[in-house]
Specification:
- By secondary structure, the chain is mainly alpha-helical.
- It has four domains: about 1-70 and about 230-315, Rossmann fold, CATH 3.40.50.620; about 80-175, Glutamyl-tRNA Synthetase, Domain 3 (Glutamyl-tRNA Synthetase, domain 3, Alpha-Beta Complex); about 320-360; about 370-445, Arc Repressor Mutant, subunit A (Orthogonal Bundle), CATH 1.10.10.
- It has 20 helices and ten strands.
- The strands form four sheets. Strands 1-2-3 form a three-stranded parallel beta sheet. The chain has a three-stranded antiparallel beta sheet with strand order 4-5-8. A two-stranded antiparallel sheet has the order 6-7.
- Helix 6 (about 185-195) packs across helix 7.
- The longest helix has 16 residues, at about 15-30.
Length: about 450
């Protein structure tokens, strides 16, 4: 089988990690099987769909190094939908309904009060032509429902295994609004048929929709594709993923300085039987990808794990791999030796700016205890310095002054960096260099 898949986002908001996971798994499945990926913008909700959201989706995919083989927008395909809609009306699979939202709500409440499932009662199927004309004479316009066959609906899901529904237990879905515009369900099925989609990968919140879609495929004379419904992400405690735990949009993660490969590394394995590990090359992720390894268990998304992966990936990047990005951060003067020195201590590449600022300045030293700093200066080892210089120096100062812990280290940090926190001084001392270290320790004397 020649595999063809689609990623079909709705441009009604910013792309978040849940969308990105679906997109990535779909893309990896296509690439691992030499398949074709269609990026289809599902913009039937014209009121909420915005061009800037569509652009953000495409920008996010490109940032994650995901390409697509073809592109489509549902708003451009009205003629195709109209033809199929007329066919479904003629064959009796679409029927007009005239209930108002308020009337439907009353029906649902009545059914629930009688402990019945809130399934549409198909009252509209009993309307005579005269009754329909009377409704329309009053100004009512129909919405259209798909008539489900009351028979078993079954498919073998790649993730969930055998799935079974009964058509009698489902409510006939509304496929066309009162204004005549088609809803997502119908457009999605028509497009999946027209574009020859072989596999549909999406979230488990679509499982009941899929049951209806299976019969829509059949009503349109097509065989349903193979489905894979991924469990939705939860937070690290197993609760519903909420934006309260931090920004989850791809745009914000990008602006926060995360590596695309950290997101790819996490999302490509999260929820599968494979261990999560840091990848620096997307080709390695593709080579090891297997959709059948994903399970029904709810995967827990932990932002801290994302940052841990990010750090590990950064620690593997060569100077040549980051040089242009350092330039973009205003660090074009940073050489390879400096990068290799600070690399093991980075969580995000933007952290390099702090190291550079502290090492190269300008820095205003904070010297509250000039006598102690003067004594420390006298004990400063002569150059050349190495990774042991800091330890040698602070041991000598400790022995001479009797200071230890915070009383020893904090005044030195403030004098050298002007801050109470920051990168490890054992490494930073070498990067600052003997000349600047002495200059900073002598700051109070020069000021005087």
């Amino acid at each position: 089988m020649s595999i063809k898949v689609r990623f079909a986002p709705s441009p009604t908001g910013m792309m978040h990690v849940g969308n990105a996971r679906t997109a990535l798994i779909t893309w990896l499945f296509a690439r691992a099987n030499n398949g074709h990926l269609l990026l289809r913008i599902d913009d039937t909700d014209q009121e909420r769909s915005k061009d800037e959201y569509e652009q953000a989706i495409e920008d996010g995919l490109r940032w994650l190094n995901m390409n697509w083989d073809s592109h489509a927008r549902q708003r451009d395909r009205g003629d195709v939908y109209d033809t199929k809609i007329e066919m479904l009306k003629e064959t009796g699979f679409l029927y007009p309904c005239y209930e108002t939202p308020e009337e439907l709500d009353l029906k649902r409440k009545s059914q629930l009060s009688r402990k019945l499932p809130p399934i549409y009662d198909r009252e509209a199927l009993n309307l005579s032509d005269e009754q329909k004309q009377a409704y329309e004479a009053k100004g009512r316009k129909p919405h259209w429902r798909f008539k489900l066959m009351h028979k078993p609906i079954e498919w073998d899901d790649i993730v969930r295994g055998p799935v079974k529904f009964s058509g009698a237990d489902l409510s006939d879905p509304v496929l066309i609004r009162e204004d005549g515009s088609p809803l997502y369900h119908l457009c999605s099925v028509i497009d999946d048929i027209e574009y020859g989609i072989t596999h549909v990968i999406r979230g488990e919140d679509h499982v009941s929709n899929t049951a209806c879609h299976v019969q829509m495929f059949e009503a349109l004379g097509a065989k349903p594709p193979i489905f894979a419904h991924l469990p939705l992400l939860s937070d690290k405690d197993g609760g519903k993923l909420s934006k309260r735990i931090g920004s989850l949009s791809l745009k914000d993660l990008q602006e926060d300085g995360l590596e695309p490969m950290s997101i790819i590394s996490l999302m490509a394995r999260l929820g599968s039987s494979d261990p999560i590990e840091p990848f620096t090359k997307v080709d390695d992720v593709i080579a090891n990808f297997d959709l059948s390894k994903f399970s029904r268990g709810t995967p827990k998304f932990d932002a801290e794990e994302l940052y841990r992966l990010n750090a590990k990936i950064l620690h593997e990047l060569s100077y040549d791999q980051v040089k242009s990005r350092l330039d973009d951060l205003g660090l074009s003067a940073m050489d390879e030796d400096f990068w290799l020195a600070i690399r093991p201590n980075l969580t995000k590449i933007t952290d390099a700016k702090e190291w550079w600022q502290v090492a190269k300045g300008p820095v205003t030293p904070v010297i509250d205890e000039p006598e102690f700093i003067a004594q420390a200066l006298d004990l400063l080892p002569a150059a050349p310095w190495d990774e042991n210089t800091w330890s040698t120096w602070t041991s000598a100062v400790k022995e001479a002054t009797g200071r230890k812990g915070k009383q020893l280290f904090m005044p030195l940090r403030q004098a050298l960096t002007g801050m109470e926190h920051g990168p490890e001084l054992a490494l930073l001392l070498i990067l600052i260099g003997e000349e600047k270290v002495k200059e900073r320790l002598l700051h109070n004397k020069k000021a005087a």
